[in-house]
Amino acid sequence: MFFGTLGTLLRQGWARCNLAAMNATLTSRRRFLKAATLATAGAPWINRFASAAQADDPNRKLGFALCGLGGLSGGQIAPALSKTKNCRLAGIVTGHPDKAEKWKAQFNIPDKNIYNYENMEKMSDNPDIDVVYVVTPNALHAELTIKAAKAGKHVLCEKPMEVSVEKCQQMIDACKAANRLLAIGYRSRFDPATQECIQLAQQKVFGASKMIEAGFGFHIGDPNQWRLKRDLAGGGALMDVGIYALQATRYLSGEEPNIVTALETKTDPVKFKEVDESVTWQLKFPSDIIANCSTTYAFGGINSYTVFAERGAFGLNPAYGYEGNRGFRTDGRRIEYPPMDQFAAEMDDFAQCILKNKPSIVSGEEGLRDIRIITAIYESIRTGKAITLA
Amino acid sequence: MFFGTLGTLLRQGWARCNLAAMNATLTSRRRFLKAATLATAGAPWINRFASAAQADDPNRKLGFALCGLGGLSGGQIAPALSKTKNCRLAGIVTGHPDKAEKWKAQFNIPDKNIYNYENMEKMSDNPDIDVVYVVTPNALHAELTIKAAKAGKHVLCEKPMEVSVEKCQQMIDACKAANRLLAIGYRSRFDPATQECIQLAQQKVFGASKMIEAGFGFHIGDPNQWRLKRDLAGGGALMDVGIYALQATRYLSGEEPNIVTALETKTDPVKFKEVDESVTWQLKFPSDIIANCSTTYAFGGINSYTVFAERGAFGLNPAYGYEGNRGFRTDGRRIEYPPMDQFAAEMDDFAQCILKNKPSIVSGEEGLRDIRIITAIYESIRTGKAITLA
User: Fold this and answer.
1) What DSSP element (H or E) covers A287?
2) Handedness of CA A126, A132, A137, A138 (dihedral sign)
């Protein structure tokens, strides 16, 4: 029912209210986020994945092993790989033999490129695999990233990078020691709508930025999913989707915040016993930009950012979708681009970084910065104090 | 330039961005807020103000004395009086003899109904005047309210009620001692668009409310105006326009917040040397509703609220204008009403309270609650701590 009203409401002039996200019948985040994109999964690319990696060819397709075969890998990343220029689905890492069988058949993956979490070190003698893309629950990211790096593979790791600053640092250290690149799956950075907003802010098209409002949330379904378990997720809405809004305030301001305050609320303390349900937080940046942010697992319709500047404003709504992000500028121009695949762009960018041996703009250090701020947000909630960041 | 794009942008689906407010050429808040309404000031009502008050007639027109003849009195309140059923402009109180002359001529006010701040006590023997409407700078509200109450007059006082909890309490006490009614000029409560939102929240049409986002700000012009002087204003954007967003979170939740956190930023420390420029604050309510609010004197385009509830959302944008407030509901209905005058409705409501001897919904106690929370917001900014409200 809410899906049907999205277009109407957007025409009516209402933002911070992506009504697609408000569909109370949605039972899983992935089902919401993947939306229409799934329809592209027709597997016409299977045969293109057969050839082995060729060293030293700047145009070669790097072999990706997907580590963790949940909804994101199947619904988004595998289809996206088929749209890349420099990547191919070469292997998988999974703890589920049944999933291994299914993927092997669907994507024509040779047995030698199929791993589980215990035998990943054997990848070191497999030239088919250049990159491990870690797509597991958050609290496994460090362990699997470190294993992949020790096996000599570059690592692309989904956001949030990990559940603590310490574990993020271990990931950075392991990749550095192995002389491998590490990047975090911040796909929004490759969305042209977001890139236009970053440019508008950097070039001060509407003058200096003064305030940023950003929020991302959705109504989470299944109460038994790993996202609601502290051991696996490390946190709730803030770790999972609030991080998009947090990232936005950082890439839009181009700065690192130095003060954080936050409040949490739980309207369903049973369902959200282990992790945060709804959080609002505020950030102050060195140039005196202030940001006001929200995230939630309790309701949808919140998926936007707005930058208020001296002589105008601009922003996106929706801002963090897999596709269809679009926005406004107060000079009357629309921010709107043809459909593209953020995951494909993210993977191709990482492939270029590897082929040209340059760090990613969404490096491990970048991922760690968000986790450091998220940690400060939780500390502010716990202590009731504004937290000063070093 | 921004005025021209408002309609376009609203159609394009962008909220929290009342672009009328973004016009960088605006030099005064009053010029912005009064906007089109001024055009109605043609004075066809002058002669209707001639008759004296008649005691004990439930349909009689109560005589209002406007105390403080700035832009709001001339641009909004005097024209609004002509649209009321039970009020009439009977007198004035001003410290400026030239303004007295001008108003006397324009509104046909008899000399005996013209006062200054020093001789207000003489009102006690003037039956023409039933109500004093205090429209001065904030820090004069208590003194003038108390003088009016002591002269036996009911008092309608502009928001913010005063600059401290103590002074608000003195106003309440003085009116109580004089057995006179006191109300605060929270005109929004009489806007049917706001009333619909309150009803949607109270009746849980979209389920229980979970989060409220509210913001109101504008680019303030003249750096020498009283609003930027601490002695007269008591505070900056928060006291002046942030209070609308704060009020909204209270009337929409129907609760009093028990925790407050806040951050302030000053991008222009010279202009905003004495008062706050931009503030974000967060409120937590007893039923676990959380609110995320913003206010500013540094930029425009922020004039809205959104209530996120279990099964949908609703809100207004613009939300706090003198007219033209309109909104959305996720059931697809528009919130939109024919033009009306909030000031006229507010004054007629107060007149009915007086004639029927019942307290106003925007009583002095209501005004004090906002000042208590504003005080806590400033305390949170000062101390860097979440403030628990009693």
Assistant:
1) none
2) positive
> Which chain A positions have a beta carbon within 8 Å of B289's beta carbon?
265, 267
B314/B206 Cα distance (integer angstroms): 9
Which 253-312 residues of chain A touch chain B by CB within 8 A?
A: 259, 261-267, 278, 280, 282-284, 287-294, 296, 298-299, 301-302, 306, 308-312
Q: Is A299 helix (H, G, I), strand (E, B) or coil?
A: coil
pLDDT (mean) for B304-319 = 97
DSSP summary character for residue A74: I
Phi, psi of B140 (to 5 degrees): -105, -5
Give the integer Cα–Cα distance in Å for B388 and B228. 28
| pLDDT tens digits, one per residue of B26-58 | 334 444 443 323 333 333 333 323 333 444 477
Report the residue of chain B nearest A266, measured CA to CA. Answer: B288
Residue A119 buriedness (CB in 10 A; 0-12 / 13-18 / 19+): exposed
Q: Which of A186, A244, A251, A378 is catalytic?
A: A244
Which chain A residues have a beta carbon less than 8 Å from that of B205? none
Q: List, as one string, the DSSP characters of B287-351.
A: TS-EEEEEEESS---EEEEEEEETTEEEEESS-SSSS---EEETTS-EE------HHHHHHHHHH
- Note the pTM of the prediction, 2 decimals: 0.85
Q: Which amino acid is present at A128?
A: D
pLDDT tens per residue across span A276-334:
999 999 999 999 999 999 999 999 999 999 999 999 999 999 999 999 999 999 999 99
**Chain B CB contacts of A19 below 8 Å:** 313, 330
Among candidates A192, A201, A292, which has minimal Cα distance to A245? A292
Helix (H) or strand (E) holding A166: helix A165-177
- Residue with structure tokens 């004089």? B178
Q: Which residue in A215, A282, A334 is closest to B12 by CB distance? A: A334
What are the two backbone dihedrals, phi and then psi, of residue A93, each rounded to the nearest 5 degrees? -130, 120
Residue B174 pLDDT: 98
Which residue is associated with the tokens 């069988």? A101
Which DSSP letter does residue A363 get? B
Q: Which residues of A touch B315 (CB under 8 A)?
A: 14, 17
Reference B299, options B20, B7, B37; nearest CA is B20
B6 CB within 8 Å of a chain A CB: no
Which residues sit opposite A216 in a β-bridge? A295, A303
Tell me whether residues A265 and B299 touch, CB distance under 8 A: no
Put simply, the answer to whether A24 touches B294 (Cβ < 8 Å) is no
Domains and their CATH numbers in chain B: 2-28+192-339+360-388 (3.30.360.10), 41-186 (3.40.50.720)
H or E element at residue A7: helix A2-12
Q: Phi then psi for B389, rounded to 5 degrees? A: -95, 140
